[in-house]
Structure prediction request, 200 residues.
Amino acid sequence: MTDAPQLYLMTPAGAQASALGPMLAEVMDRVAPACLRIRGGAEEDELGRLADMAREIAHARDVAVVIDDHVKLALRHGLDGVHLTDGAKAVRYARKELGDDAIVGAFCGTSRHEGMNAAEAGADYVAFGPVADSALYRGEPVALELFQWWSEMIEVPVVAEGAITRELLTQLSPITDFIALGPEIWTQDDPVATLALLWG
Prediction:
């Protein structure tokens, strides 16, 4: 556990590959992420285009790429793994389909129990969120104490996501391995400048 978490970058939900490409490269050149996650929300064909574009940009920068839930798309487009949005349920299935070298991450909301189940099932990381009030997530924000407890007790890396602010980023830095940013920057007029301000 270090005091400097790495950036875990999420694409905008439902993004179009042609529009996102140049901006994605610029954002990743500003702050190098440890991982790029393609969020769902687009049609299969568009997700395929997004996967190819993201893989090309990310792999050129030695950044791993995962995609929300779509095990078959991850295989078909040569991605590094999947991010499962429904907790521990599909972790074993994804691992079996993708193999031991793939990244399998699990979003577990605010549930420590679900997080532990995902870790036991073989997840490479567990994500909790939202960290603050957000209409993009079901339920109440996760208590920061959960990250504190996890970082002290569990070896599996932990990701904080959802409504991250500069202040929250500072609070989370000592107790998380990765901090996920997506809507926080893409909804702004200048995502690159916003990332620079947030990440500092």
